[in-house]
UniProtKB/TrEMBL annotation:
InterPro entries assigned to the protein according to its UniProt record, in alphabetical order: O-mannosyl-transferase_TMTC (IPR052346), TPR-like_helical_dom_sf (IPR011990), TPR_rpt (IPR019734)
Native organism: Candidatus Yanofskybacteria bacterium RIFCSPLOWO2_02_FULL_43_10b
Mapped TPR repeat ranges: 504-537, 538-571
Taxonomic superkingdom: Bacteria
Keyword Transmembrane helix: yes
Protein name as annotated: Dolichyl-phosphate-mannose--protein mannosyltransferase
Keywords: Membrane, Repeat, TPR repeat, Transmembrane, Transmembrane helix
Gene3D superfamilies with a match to the protein in the record: Tetratricopeptide repeat domain (1.25.40.10)
Transmembrane segments: 94-116, 171-196, 230-247, 316-334, 360-382, 391-407, 427-447
Length: 641
């Protein structure tokens, strides 16, 4: 009865934390709910026809993350499936952002559980919970819709840890697969689980030899035995890993290995020498640390020229600081890895409660939870798709807040800060400091959310932090073009040209400006240059097709529209391509393409109209009449019967 009562109290405590997590997350991130699709949200989420078509849902699990672009090496079907469900439920940015906030709330709750379970400290659990939930560096992961990959990978990774610790192998395996399906970086859960099993869930035999030689020899044997046991306990995760590999190969084919497909603009570290890459990556680590400690200067863009390459580590204090931080994290993770030296024997392996911990072991846990996820995105091991991104710190930030919570707890227990010679004085100081940091984080997050309201607010804020960034300048130029602010757009493009001219997106925007100014030859040159720099530049293909159509070059227009629909088969461009082919007296080609991509779905009034027009040109007036009448009944008032 007493144990049931304790379990009830414990359950209510966790439910209360979950409720607080949801309420606080909505309070802190809620002012971002009214925002729009911004930055990568537009291409990855908003404009994806495959995410809006419910008949395509299962195909998402054998499709690359970027539509029809397996060469990017990205495969995140669970994240895409969640986007699809959002589209089915209305597709507004509000819905997408609300889901992100709720996932973050659950993640913060899981962070509380993890610290509470492994460190057995309520003080550290609550401190880590509040610091993680409110930290401003999470704004990009939570408020930006594409940050959902980070959120889901974190969620399922911690769920995997939970089921592993409780000895639910099947559920742990399923959760691990779902984490991998959320984002590739969830692979880091394997070293994290190894660390947790080895350091918290496992203890070697407590019998000790008496001679120094036997002590050394037996200690080595025990360590090897412990490592071997941990590896054996983790081997069942090879099943979901193999399952993931099969599906990944089905989606990516020869790009299965996932070599980062990027340009010098997104990540120049892929194009520099080995030591330059390492030194600059260490500099980036110092920049991450700065933003974790003092999250004021936040930016959505750290691309080309935002971060200068380090050729000599001794000429960069940031790179040296990064080296010191990396060495410190490794030291903490392995210096304070073991729980205690309790001589009493106990069962080993997962499924049991974690070993009693020392205060300093919290440093080891924090360092490990920062280090292993960080190494996946650090560019230290291999170059990745981007040089730096605040959303990439989502998992590692948990390690940071655990270390920060440990520092606060040490303050609570330290007699040096017992200013009033009262046992409660340290508690007041601790609560005051935690409240001050949490309020600072929360207010900064609320303010940062406003930057992510729409493209204009985001890139105006970003250009202040990253004035020499090419991506930011071109993105801001795009904002001005869409608002018909051509003078401002040209100013941004001139700055971008001074930064780096051989960029596909920049050339495409220059082509749009040339077309607007009545210079079709220059516009054509710019669009072709954009495609030369990036053959997959879909917007340049669209703009080139529209340019040719505008000046009556139907064959060239049809050729470019065909390239567009092979990559991006949405209704607008299918119809434009079909009409171009009909105008070229190729109605059969128009019908073939519509049949291939639209299938038998002619409940779209414009599809029905173009099919009717094609049959009319073929001379099949009976069929033409059927489809044209159907088009008008569906609401197309342009189609003539």
């Amino acid at each position: 009865m007493y144990q049931k009562f304790l379990n009830l109290i414990k359950t209510k405590k966790f439910l209360a934390v979950l409720a607080i997590s949801v309420i606080l997350s909505l309070a802190i991130f809620g002012n971002g709910l009214g925002g729009d699709f911004v930055f990568d949200d537009v291409a990855v989420v908003k404009n994806r026809g495959d995410l809006k078509d419910s008949s395509y849902f299962l195909n998402l699990f054998i499709s690359p993350y970027h539509q029809n672009m397996p060469k990017t090496g990205l495969y995140r079907p669970l994240t895409m499936a969640s986007y699809a469900l959002n589209h089915y439920l209305g597709g507004s940015a509000f819905g997408f952002r609300l889901v992100n906030i709720l996932i973050h709330a659950f993640n913060s709750f899981l962070a509380f559980w993890l610290v509470s379970y492994f460190l057995k400290s309520r003080v550290m659990a609550y401190a880590s919970f509040f610091l993680f939930l409110t930290h401003p560096i999470h704004t990009e992961a939570v408020t930006s819709i594409v940050g959902r990959a980070e959120l889901l990978a974190f969620f399922w990774s911690l769920v995997t840890i939970y089921f592993y610790a409780k000895d639910f192998k099947l559920l742990a395996a399923i959760s691990f697969l779902l984490a991998l399906w959320s984002k590739e970086t969830a692979l880091m859960i394997l070293p994290v689980l190894f660390y947790l099993d080895f350091c918290f869930l496992n203890q070697p035999d407590s019998s000790y030899p008496h001679t120094r030689f036997d002590l050394v020899q037996n200690d080595l044997v025990q360590k090897l035995s412990t490592v071997g046991g941990t590896v054996r306990r983790l081997m069942f995760l090879g099943v979901p890993l193999g399952f993931y590999a099969i599906f990944r190969y089905m989606a990516l084919g020869k790009y299965f290995a996932g070599d980062a497909t990027t340009t010098i603009v997104e990540n120049q570290l892929k194009f520099v020498g080995f030591f330059e890459r390492i030194f600059t990556a260490l500099k980036v680590l110092a920049m991450y640390a700065e933003r974790l400690i003092w999250p004021v200067h936040l930016s959505a863009d750290y691309s080309y020229q935002r971060i200068s390459v380090v050729g000599n580590i001794f000429k960069s204090w940031e790179a040296l600081l990064g080296l010191f931080l990396l060495a410190g994290l490794i030291y903490l993770a392995f210096r304070f890895r073991k729980a205690n030296n309790n001589p009493e024997p106990r069962p080993i392996g997962f499924g049991a409660d974690p070993l009693p911990v020392t205060s300093y072991q919290a440093l080891g846990l924090g360092a490990a939870l920062f280090l292993f996820p960080y190494l996946m995105i650090s560019n230290l091991i291999i170059p990745v798709g981007t040089i730096m991104g605040e959303r990439l710190m989502y998992f590692s930030s948990l390690g940071f807040v655990i270390i920060l919570a440990w520092l606060l707890e040490r303050l609570l227990k330290s007699p040096r800060f017992d200013l009033f010679k009262d046992p409660r004085s340290n508690l007041f100081i601790f609560c005051g400091l935690l409240a001050a940091i949490t309020i600072f984080y929360g207010v900064r997050t609320v303010v940062r959310n406003l930057d992510w309201k729409d493209s204009r607010t985001l890139f105006n804020a970003t250009v202040k932090e990253s004035p020499a960034s090419l991506i930011t300048r071109t993105a801001l130029a795009g904002v001005h073009i869409r608002a018909d602010e051509w003078k401002e757009a040209k100013e941004e493009l001139e700055i971008a040209r001074d930064i780096y001219e051989d960029n596909s997106h920049l050339q495409n925007l220059l082509g749009i400006v040339a077309d607007h100014e009545g210079q079709p030859e220059l516009a054509e040159t710019r669009f072709n240059k954009s495609l030369e720099l990036n053959p997959d530049a879909i917007n340049a293909n669209i703009n080139l097709a529209e340019l040719y159509l505008k000046y009556g070059q139907l064959e060239a227009a049809a050729l470019n529209f065909k390239k567009v629909i092979e990559f991006f088969p949405v209704a607008e461009y299918l119809i434009r391509y079909a009409y171009a082919e009909i105008a070229l007296n190729q109605p059969d080609e128009a019908l073939r393409v519509l049949q291939k991509y639209a299938g038998g779905n002619l409940q779209h009034p414009d599809f029905s109209a173009v099919v009717g027009t094609a049959y009319f040109v073929k001379g099949d007036y009976r069929q033409a009449l059927v489809y044209l009448k159907n088009s008008r009944e569906l609401g197309n008032k342009v189609a003539e019967v």
